[in-house]
């Protein structure tokens, strides 16, 4: 089964007071989005990043990701996801499924991402990891849902598709708190980072 990873990295970081949160260096000096991208690539080598900032596009391209620069009206989450889905569907050989990850969630382990992809490979329409019973990211979708994802708009990501197909979500239990750890502010990031 051909599975493509989509990294959503087109946000504006409006609440992050220290610049673009996706370019903010984590421990080790790598930017947030780069860490997220490396974990995604380790599990799924076919990876597309949807970006707004040219500097971020170059950094992620250097990591080995295909990049798609979204138009100004595609820079909220659902619009950028829809643009990415339309892009991969237009390929000569479209994927059988996609795994959608967020660039501001750099703490998800590659084995968790691989487990979500494996669940899709067994025939799941939607697959997502769960930590202590709580569903997190990334979320995988089979090709049967591509048309609905490609028609999304607004700032709710794929929430409407998940609500419409709640009975189709197959949870993959994992011991990875990173699936729940995103951040919008510098203070939230500091709470997620290990003590020096």
From TrEMBL:
The keyword Signal does not apply. GO terms for molecular function: nucleotidyltransferase activity. Keywords: Magnesium. Residues 5-166 form the MobA-like NTP transferase domain. InterPro entries: MobA-like_NTP_Trfase, Nucleotide-diphossugar_trans. It holds the Pfam family NTP_transf_3. This is MobA-like NTP transferase domain-containing protein.
């Amino acid at each position: 089964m051909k599975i493509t990873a989509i990294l959503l990295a087109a946000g504006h970081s409006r609440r992050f007071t220290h610049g673009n949160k996706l370019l903010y260096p984590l421990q080790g000096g790598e930017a947030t989005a780069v860490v997220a991208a490396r974990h995604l690539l380790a599990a799924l080598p076919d990876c597309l990043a949807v970006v707004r900032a040219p500097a971020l596009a170059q950094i992620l391209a250097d990591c080995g990701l295909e990049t798609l620069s979204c138009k100004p009206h595609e820079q909220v989450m659902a619009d950028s996801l829809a643009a990415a889905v339309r892009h991969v569907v237009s390929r000569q050989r479209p994927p059988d499924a996609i795994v959608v990850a967020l660039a501001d969630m750099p703490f998800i382990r590659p084995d968790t991402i691989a487990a979500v992809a494996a669940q899709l490979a067994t025939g799941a329409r939607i697959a997502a990891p769960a930590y202590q019973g709580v569903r997190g990211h990334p979320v995988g979708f089979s090709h049967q849902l591509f048309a609905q994802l490609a028609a999304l708009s607004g700032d709710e990501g794929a929430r409407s598709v998940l609500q419409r197909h709640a009975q189709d979500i197959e949870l993959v239990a994992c011991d990875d708190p990173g699936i729940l750890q995103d951040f919008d502010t510098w203070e939230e990031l500091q709470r997620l980072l290990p003590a020096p």
